[in-house]
Amino acid sequence: MDYENTAKKILQRVGGKDNVINLVHCMTRLRFTLKDESIVDDEAVKKTKGVMGIMKKGGQYQIIIGNDVGNVFNELNKLGNFSNEVKEVPAKSNEKKNIFTMLMDTISGIMAPVIPAIIGAAMIKVLLTLLPMIGVLSTNGQTYQLLSVIGDGAFFFMPVLIAISASKKFGTNMYYAASIALIMLHPNLITLMNTAHDAGQTVKFLKYIPVTYASYSYSVIPIILAVYSLRYVERFVDKITPVVTKNFLKPMLVVLIEAPIALIILGPLGAICGNGLSTVVYAIHDKLGFIAIGLVAGVYPFVVMAGMHHAFTPIKLGMIATTGYENFICIGELCSNMAQGAASLAVALRSKNKDFKQIAGSSAFSALFAGITEPVLYGVTLRLKRPMLGACIGGAVGGLVGGFFQMKCFGIATLIIGFEDIVDEDDDLDFVEESNAQLLDNEISITSPVEGKVIPLTEVKDPTFSQEILGKGAAIIPEKGVVYAPFDGKVDAVFETGHALGLVSEDGVELLVHVGIDTVNLKGKHFTPKKKSGDTMKKGDILLEFDIDKIKADGYDVTTPIIISNTEQFAKVKACEDKVVTKESKLLSVQ
């Protein structure tokens, strides 16, 4: 990719550098804050070489680049010298935002740049689980201890990573934010708090102000709150300090004011909530029995987000030491972790984005093998929201089942769950849904449902098809206005406007026949369906008739994409090499 040329075209098509307020990027996307999004040529941006797609969300104009995003970002900065700190953009008065959605988007946006470090550390922890099991590495050796430090570093010092990311999100000074995180993780502070806690005492600031006992390593929410408040502290200090003293007085006052706020007010909120939560959940268990395990499993991802899951560790260990087992929190955690991992694995299998497929796959691996769900939570399910809901429901159901059958945990360790690994698109095997398909060893030929000239999908003048977002296939410029059944099976769906059909073969192949581009705007004119949803069909049956000349006369392209909509369920999908096809010709093959 010519990064410089791509950057120039992107900048031109988003309205030029004068239309850019600021520019940041995450793992795969350029994130513009623009003065006026209405002047942006969306289609031109999408068609720019190197651009995989666009998304408008949270006041940002996001351009999906992929792994090369950093290089394009650097070239854009050379062209415009843009601010790389996120500025607040007033929301439009008619824009409605759900508070929960805003919170999830904020946390997800902050965590996105941190994901590579978390995934790297998580995979090292997976190795630390697997290598001793196969006898390659001793848990008593120094190599194991060093690898343990390497694998745990990103998690233990996660508040520092999050502080850096949050500073960009909230528009605060990155180094102030990192300094606050380092203060919260300073060894002397940890020692001071632990010593006082073990002695049953409370640390006091200025002799009278109590500092609640808390551990901030591995946590997320406390540092986000601290960095959010930091921007207001910065503004306040900036107003009260004379210009001549700003170089030395302002930094001192910012840290001197913000650190106590973080340590005394915002940071302990997580610990207070955690202690209260521990008391509440066991009280709930006493009242609700196995139902409580399902509730814990369902809400556990949010407990992890708050960094409160570590509050349960001493309770679990104490319960195991006293009774020999723990039958509540551990079971809920296990079910939640498995559900998060399964959700991420499902995303890896279904996603059409190769980069995101890799992220979801590795995240699922760490969750299922090592019980580390942060990469899944912040990199996959929280970002997509629906998988998050599915994981919560799945965890809750698993918890109910585990509780009903009285599962017990006799020790806290990583549980290895076997599952089939994710394979590449070029491999000979792939996963399939049991509901409507099976892995096919033999090739299945699909005859053409339309007669005419065959062209590659890439030549279709619609990015949804040309980019194979819906799946692989081919396209036909029809010479006859008839759609035939390409195989024996069922008409799964006939769109109300009649311009598209969803077909399912007896072998589980799902085929989408979309007559024309944007022909949905015809609202059914010139289309005459011969079958309805749910009807069975035999190969060669007439399913739909359409008037080619009238469609063209109304100004519409009659090019007809033929898509295998469940492409991900097959190892290979191949289009024929014929230039012209009839209803008897082979158009596609799947294996």
List keywords for this structure.
eight-stranded antiparallel beta sheet; transmembrane helix; Dup_hybrid_motif; four-stranded antiparallel beta sheet; 591 residues; cell membrane; phosphotransferase system; alpha+beta
How does this model look, in words?
The protein is an alpha+beta fold. 48% of the residues lie in helices and 15% in strands. The protein is built from 19 helices and 20 strands. It has helices at residues 3-13, 42-47, 69-80, 99-111, 115-133, 142-156, 158-170, 174-184, 187-198, 221-240, 246-288, 290-305, 313-323, 329-350, 354-370, 374-384, 386-404, 463-466, 548-553, and strands at 20-25, 29-34, 53-57, 60-64, 203-205, 209-211, 444-447, 452-455, 472-478, 482-484, 489-494, 500-505, 510-514, 527-529, 536-537, 542-546, 560-564, 573-575, 580-581, 586-590. Strands 15-11-12-13-17-9-8-19 form an eight-stranded antiparallel beta sheet, with no helix packed on it. A four-stranded antiparallel beta sheet has the order 1-2-4-3. A hairpin with a 3-residue loop joins strand 5 (203-205) and strand 6 (209-211). The chain starts with a helix and ends with a strand. The relative contact order is 0.07.
Give the topology.
Blueprint: H1 3-13, E1 20-25, E2 29-34, H2 42-47, E3 53-57, E4 60-64, H3 69-80, H4 99-111, H5 115-133, H6 142-156, H7 158-170, H8 174-184, H9 187-198, E5 203-205, E6 209-211, H10 221-240, H11 246-288, H12 290-305, H13 313-323, H14 329-350, H15 354-370, H16 374-384, H17 386-404, E7 444-447, E8 452-455, H18 463-466, E9 472-478, E10 482-484, E11 489-494, E12 500-505, E13 510-514, E14 527-529, E15 536-537, E16 542-546, H19 548-553, E17 560-564, E18 573-575, E19 580-581, E20 586-590
Antiparallel strand pairs: 1-2, 2-4, 3-4, 5-6, 7-20, 8-9, 8-19, 9-17, 10-16, 11-12, 11-15, 12-13, 13-17, 14-16, 18-20
